[in-house]
Amino acid sequence: MGYMKKYIKKYWKLFLLSISFLIIEAIADLLQPTIMANMVDIGVANNDLEYVFKAGGYMLLITGIGAVGAIGRNIVSSYTSQCFGAQLRSDLFKKIQYLSAEGINNFQTSSLITRITYDVTQVKDFVHRMMRIFFKAPVLCIGSIIMAFYLSPSMSLILLLIVPIIAVIMGINFKIGFPYFTRVQLAMDKINEVMREYLRGVRVVKAFSRQDFEKDRFHRVNENLAQVTKKAMRVTAIFSPAITLTVNLGIVAILWFGSFLIRDGNIQVGKVIAFINYMTQILHSLMIISRIINNSVRAKASLDRIGEVFNYENTIKNPLNPKIIDSKYCKIEFSNVSFAYGDGELVLKDITFSCLPGETIGIIGSTGAGKSTLVNLIPRFFDVRSGNIRINDIDISQLDIKNLREKISIVPQKALLFTGTIYDNIRWGKKDATEDEIREVAEIAQAHSFITSFSAGYQTVLGQGGVNLSGGQKQRIAIARALLKKAPIMILDDSTSAVDVGTEASIKKGLKRFLKDSTVIIIAQRITSVMDLDKIVVLDEGEIVGIGNHSELLKTCLVYRDIYRSQLGREGDFVERSQLCSIR
Ligand SMILES: Nc1ncnc2c1ncn2[C@@H]1O[C@H](COP(=O)(O)OP(=O)(O)OP(=O)(O)O)[C@@H](O)[C@H]1O
Question: Which residue numbers delimit the ABC transporter domain (predicted)?
Answer without folding.
Answer: 332-566
